[in-house]
Task: structure prediction
Amino acid sequence: MRRAAVSNGAAAHLHFPQQHASQHAAESEPAQLADLPASESDAGATIDERPASAPPRPVTPLHAVQVTPSASNGRAVQLADANDVERMADDAALKTFHTFRTFDYSVSLLFYPKELKYFVALFQEDRMWRVLTTSDMNTARQLFHHMQEQATRLADGETRRLQLEAQNEQLKRLIAESEAHAERLRRGLQRTTEQDQAVTGRQHQLRKDLAQLEAQRTAAQAQLNKAHRQVHQLNVANNEAIPHIPR
Result:
């Protein structure tokens, strides 16, 4: 009875077509009653009076399926072991078809002639980071361009950092040049101011000297005029002392 109850409970959550349910119930019900002990015959009769419900249909167990990455065109792409690829590169077993580099990131399209395989490897600081492999040349080229775009995106920060560093260096240089120019202008202005002050002082001293010289000239001219008058007076006096001789 316990097994019948479990079967009915499980069937209550499953829905099947009516004809399959009736056939399955007809085949499975006698086996369930035969398994019951004689002391539970009344309970078995009670079960026979209930409407037969279909037990759950056997479910096929699921098995894990290995999924292989594939390119957009459906050709197989697989992850490769970076250690194996590095070992083949060290043994000179790989041929390089294409190489792309941007800052610390690089992408290489490698060919393994022994097995006709292509490897597309992404490097970071010359260390192999990710490797994909395929046997189709067109797929390998698509993978190479895809990783090239990925490397470019990864290097965008490096590109921006380098640009900002260059701009900052340029700004520092312009600031230094501007400060040096301003210092030259300050020194020139200071020199001009000092020269203006020197010229002003010189002109002031010159005016004083001119005034003194003019005063000296005036005094000397007055003294000269006085001397001329004295000479004239002496000449007149001397002329009067000369006797007059008639003609």
